[in-house]
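Case study B.
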Amino acid sequence: MIKVSNLSFSYTGGGVPVLSDINLEFDQRTTAIIGQNGAGKTTFVKLLKGLLKATYGEILIGEYDVKMRTAAELARKIGLVFQNPNDQIFKRTVLDETMFGLLNIKMGRYTAEKLAVEALELVGLDDKLSMNPHDLSLSEKKLLCIASVVAMDTDIVIFDEPTIAQDHAGKEIIRRIIQKLKEKNKLVLTIIHDMDFVAENFDRTIVFNEGKVLLDGSTREVFSQKDVLEEANVEPPGITQLANRLGLKNTILTVDEFLHECAK
Ligand SMILES: Nc1ncnc2c1ncn2[C@@H]1O[C@H](COP(=O)(O)OP(=O)(O)OP(=O)(O)O)[C@@H](O)[C@H]1O
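Model:
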């Protein structure tokens, strides 16, 4: 559904590339993009969304060549939840914020409100419709941004660090939303530093390092590559590390798997 070919990008014209020669295809597998700060992850998803223009290479979303499409056309295909909610929120009420994108693609007010309220129910903010978003906690602001993007019902949904500032309950809401999107055959891409969350929720994991793809495979395959991950300064999930130290042979991703393996 997304095909990225020979993609390179530099913020300063001919300067040092932030991304070099990226070749990736994305399908319906839930996919985590990981890697240390500055590896180029956010730049990559901004290119997918058409917010930045590739210095070199091509991005195809279905039949769309991203660089030939308008922001409005891309808004119907691809939703991006920014890392920092303050980059996304600008309306005066929670409901208006969630309806904004829908009204912007010329949806009628009645349907837009219905979809917005449904999305706010999903994230547990439906009792705060008339609140000013700036009076919400950081965790709630992030959930509001998620609701605004989910309401758009795009085929592709990208989250940039959704679990930051979330407690267990907030992470559970995000986990459920990702599952729900997957069930609806949406392509879900998530930039994330929380490796436990990655291990528990994503089919595929891609490791970015210094603007290149260092690893790409099933989450289990990727977390089994201890030495390569070290090169990218990525620590496997806590439970995977514990299992390694105890000498368990298989790559363990969850506590349940750990207990099951220990009981053998
Ligand atoms: N607007 C910008 N102008 C110039 N350089 C930028 C800009 N945005 C990001 N960079 C640089 O591009 C590189 C990649 O940044 P990017 O935000 O894509 O990395 P990241 O992997 O998402 O990091 P993080 O995990 O910290 O969000 C970094 O060196 C960063 O300083």
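The beta strands are 2-9, 19-26, 31-34, 56-61, 64-65, 78-81, 156-160, 187-191, 204-209, 212-218. The remaining cases will be described in the next quarterly update.
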